[in-house]
Amino acid sequence: MSIYGDCQQYLQPILDQVLAQIKQLNDGYQQRTGAKLYEHLEGRVKSEGSMVEKLHRKGYDQTPTAALRACKDAIGLRIVTNFIDDIYTTIALLKAQPDIAIVKEKDYITHAKPNGYRSYHMIVEKTVNYPDVEGNFPGKYFIEIQLRTIAMDTWASLEHEMKYKHDIKNPEMISKELARVADDLASCDVSMQTIRKLIREDQ
Ligand code: 0O2
């Protein structure tokens, strides 16, 4: 029996639906403005093993209800943009979707984590034409959406790699360097944003 119970069969189709919905938002935006909303978009259904481990770590029951209601990232997607402004434009478009309700937002861009991590996190609840774990139809499923620039994404991948390597020789020095580079990248993101604004103002 899956940790997601009978709902397991719906998770990938729901992820596919939301990915298609965001691609459509991008197409509409591109038609209106000539610019793209994001550089790339990716998504995953959290593996059963990762969910079992997370439930254990958080002290939740090993049940489909805990996996789909207490944990809110069984379905997750990441939107990677070229510029910081594009993140907030995308958020505004997502908020205007009638089948998507915002549950929680964390702005680690305005308030970076002490290690240098930057990203905008949203937990949304999407209404779908499938039953949910509580037996409602239409059902409601949580989705975690992470939005970040290419620079923030590259940094997060490297930092993630470091976290899972336990034989690093000088972890303090590397953490310090990572924090310093995160600030440099943030400063470049702001400069890129400013340059784009200047170019567009001239047009
Ligand atoms: P995975 O495998 O990436 O999904 P939660 O643990 O989700 O219940 P929390 O801790 O409040 O609650 O979530 P938060 O802060 O929104 O972070 C959730 C996800 O953001 C993490 O997922 C990471 O993917 C990413 N993240 C957060 N902080 C960092 C960081 O310092 N560095 C990097 N590289 N990524 C980060 P999980 O749960 O770790 O796992």
List keywords for this structure.
single chain; 203 residues; alpha+beta; Beta Polymerase, domain 2; five-stranded mixed β-sheet; 6 helices; flat; binds ligand 0O2; RelA_SpoT; NT_sf; GTP_Pyrophosphokinase; GTP pyrophosphokinase
Would you kindly provide a written description of the structure presented here, covering whatever features stand out?
By secondary structure, this protein is of the alpha+beta class. It has a single domain (5-154), classed as 2-Layer Sandwich (Beta Polymerase, domain 2), CATH 3.30.460.10. Helices cover 50% and strands 20% of the residues. It contains six helices and five strands; from the N terminus they run αβααβαβββαα. The chain has a five-stranded mixed sheet with strand order 1-2-5-4-3. It is flat, with a radius of gyration of 19 Å. The model has no long low-confidence stretch (mean pLDDT 96). Ligand 0O2 is lined by residues 50, 73, 76, 106, 113, 115, 117, 121, 156, 159-160. It comes from Lactobacillus corticis. This is GTP pyrophosphokinase.
Shape: flat
CATH architectural name: 2-Layer Sandwich
Measured as a percent range, the helix fraction is 40-55%
Structural class by sheet pairing and helices: alpha+beta
DSSP strand count? 5
Write out the strand line-up for the largest beta sheet, numbering strands in chain order: 1-2-5-4-3
Q: Which runs of at least 5 residues are low in confidence (pLDDT < 50)?
A: none
Total tally of structural domains = 1
The name of the CATH superfamily reads: Beta Polymerase, domain 2
The kinds of small molecule bound in this structure are: ligand 0O2
